[in-house]
Amino acid sequence: MKGTDIVVKGLSKSYNSVNGEESLEVLDDIYLHIKQGEFISILGPSGCGKSTLLNILAGFESGDNGVATCCKEKIEGVSTQRAVVFQSPVLFPWLSVRKNVMFGLKQKKMDDGARQKIVDKYLKAVGISKFENYYPGQLSGGMQQRVALARVLVLDPNILLMDEPFAALDAQSRLSMQELLLNLWQKHKPTVIFVTHDVEEALFLSDKVFIMSGRPGRIKKEIEVTFRRPRNISIIGTPEFSELKKHILSTLMDIY
Amino acid sequence: MLNLKKINLLGFLIPAIVFTFWYIVTMGGMVPPYLVPSPSTLLLVSIDFAIGNLNITPYSGTLFTHAYASITRVLYGFAIATVLGLTLGFLTGRSMLAKDTFDPTVHLIRIIPGIGWLPIAIVWFGVGETTTLFLISLAAFFPIYVNAAQGASSVSPLLIRAGKMLGANNISLYTTVIIPAAMPSTIAGLRLGLGVSWGFLVLGELTGVASGLGALMMDARMLGHVDIILVSMICIGILGRVSDILLMSSFKRSGLLIEGDKNEGN
User: What is the mean pLDDT of residues B15-20?
Assistant: First the structure.
């Protein structure tokens, strides 16, 4: 689909305290332009509002000022075209893995045979076919996150919003999830907005990294990442990678 | 033999002691049979009560008539309580407006003990069938309502976001996310409600209906048949337990209750 750029202009957001007397500024004057099919990361310290920004892009929340648009339309409410992978898997514990992946397709009117075929395809793509008849509670965190990924991919979304999806995983599962994500992205080319506080993760995955300041969150810097694709973990050891990592880390330090 | 290791023999200790004690005191004539019949008498009376082969009491062979009457009343009363309790519970659990409207009144009424409704129920509905149904559905309503509301209101907001993001509309969000997520608490309420139903069945039947285990107990008391009173009590206990098992297994079969599930996912 053409023209599914995401444009954010002058977006800000505050939360009021319970008694309404104080207000906490979370996002301040955010500008973003993300082209269709780009893989970008939003990097920033905890509490800088990056999750809030993602929630606004998903349509779960709305900003106070400014505007967030997708495909030239203002983002209002959720859409299956903007899929979200949360920090925790948030699977439906009463459904088997297969039925979890099926959930989105069940909301649509379509032939059941076609549904089953799509589900099979993505269960295989994320490597969980063997576990399709288990409940999420019986799987490890990494496996659950694969299910969460398959669950949104079946809907063939234009945009994938990911909120520190691998933060809770051990180093090994994290690495294999990152490679899996890159493979899937290369095949389907959705726009990916990936929120993380891990510099290496952001560099390894993205075309572009947006660095946010601490609260209230602002976009401090935009860094192009030009490593050749397809990438694999061997780039993490290269001098160019280390150089860029150092640069980003010092930018992050400057912010404080 | 297969499950022998799973059964903890310790659980049988107290029943065994009670049974032995019961056997000894009734055998030796320390307790007269019109207060406590011996275990063997009770066994004979139960068999006769069920199949009517001995004709040793006026109640020979009437077990199924009475049990059927009682089960029917419980089913109707519990069904009414379930329909009202779940509907109102899910409504107040998800809507602040509904909660502010209904919740205070419901809890005000809930404070009045169920037994306290008996006199007014007799005045309104007369002695018998309707009063029994009224008492059962009234008493069973509250645990069902409270637990359904609690379950519905505590569904993780993240699960709701996930459901919406995957394309669930307002109606399917209820059927595919909110109701299943609220199930553990809702089922707890239904089980409590069913238990209460049996309790209030007996209360209603004691006041005088033609058939039913509660009515039978009262009748047997007047004729001095303590054995029938005890057998009726045992029957109610067994029926209550069986109905609970059936309720649980129907939920398990329908896939709404996952065995050994930790209900995580957020």
Answer: 91
* Tally of domains in chain A: 1
- Checking if the pLDDT of B166 tops 70, the result is yes
Q: Which of B164, B172, B266 sits opposite A78 (nearest CB)?
A: B164
| Residue A123 pLDDT | 92
Which residue segment(s) compose the domain that A42 sits in? 1-78+190-256
Domains contained in chain B, CATH given: 59-253 (1.10.3720.10)
Nearest to B59 by CA among B194, B235, B265: B235
Of A82, A86, A137, the CB nearest to B264: A137
For A91, which of B176, B183, B265 is closest by C-beta distance?
B265
Chain A's closest residue to B177, CA to CA, is A92
Instruction: Give the strand pairing for A6-16 and A65-70.
Output: antiparallel
With beta carbons under 8 A apart, name residues in chain B contacting A84: 161-162, 165
The whole-number pLDDT of residue B86 equals 95
Q: Do A155 and B262 touch (CB under 8 A)?
A: no
Which chain B residue has its CA at the smallest distance from A154's CA? B166
Which of A109, A104, A96 has its CA nearest to residue A139? A96
Quick check: A238 pLDDT over 60?
yes
